[in-house]
Amino acid sequence: MEDIYSLMTEFLKAFSHPLRLKIVEYLSETEKSVGEIVKYVDGEISNVSRHLALLKKAGILLDRKEGLNIYYHMKNPCIMDFYNCINKAVKSNLEMNRDLLDKIM
Amino acid sequence: MEDIYSLMTEFLKAFSHPLRLKIVEYLSETEKSVGEIVKYVDGEISNVSRHLALLKKAGILLDRKEGLNIYYHMKNPCIMDFYNCINKAVKSNLEMNRDLLDKIM
DNA sequence: TTACTACTTGGTAAAGTAATCAAATAAATT
DNA sequence: AATTTATTTGATTACTTTACCAAGTAGTAA
Questions:
Q1: pLDDT tens-digit series, residues A21-37
Q2: How many structural domains is chain B composed of?
Q3: Residue A93 within any structural domain of the chain
Q4: Is A86 on the interface with B (CB under 8 A)?
Q5: Which residue has the closest alpha carbon to D27 C1'?
Q6: FRET partner for A4 with CA separation of 20 to 30 A, picked from A14, A27, B42, B96?
Q7: Is A68 a member of any domain?
Q8: CATH of residue B69
C-alpha cells in the first residue's frame, strides 16, 4: 500500500512539465483535438501525443474518438482549482523573493 | 526570460518527491535540525541533506546555523497553503475515481 | 484497394534525478 | 592539538524522463 506522500508525488509529477501545464490550461474550458493542441503548444506531434497519454494515465485527462480525430478533455474540472493554486503559489513565492531583495537593497 | 510554465514546473518539481513532501510537512510549524529531520523521515543523512539543499535552492526552505546544528525552516509559511492544496487535489482525484468505479459496478 | 489524414508507438540517445558510500568541513569538547 | 559530533560534498551507479525520427494503426475518402 502506497503512502500519501507517494500519491502526492505521482500527482505532482504529472503536472511537472511546461508543455503539460500549457496543455492543461488550454483544455480548461473545452475539449480539443490532438491537432489543435499540437498547434497551440507548438510542439512535435509525437511528443505532444506522449504527454497527452501521460496526463490520461495520471487520471487528469480523458479522450474521446470521433472519426479521425481524438479529443482530449479534463476528467475532473476541479483540477483547474489546483492549477490556479500552483500559479498563485509560484507568484507569491516570486513576490516574496522580490520583497526580500527590496528589503536588503 | 523564462515563461510561467517553466517557473511553475521548477516549483512543482521541488515538491515532487515523497521525502521532500514529508520534510515540508514536518517543518510546517517550527524549524528542525537536520538530525531531527533525518530521524523523522527515517532516511540516510547524506540523502536527506541533499533533499534539504534542493528545497533551499528552490526557495522553499531557509537554514540557520547554531553551534554544530543546522536548522531548516519554511521560507514562506504560505507555502503550506499550497501543500494543503496538493493534498486536497489528490484526495479529490482519488474519490472521483472511486465514484466512477462505484457508478460502473 | 489504394491513398490520405490524424494520431500513437517503438527504438534510441541525451539529460536529469536519486541513492549510496566515502571523504571533507566546521564547530565544540577534551 | 586531537577527538567527537553534525552536516555537506564528491564520485559513482542506477533509474527515469524527454525528444526525436521512423514505422505502425485506424478511420475516411477516392
A1: 999 999 999 999 999 99
A2: 1
A3: no
A4: yes
A5: A68
A6: A27
A7: yes
A8: 1.10.10.10
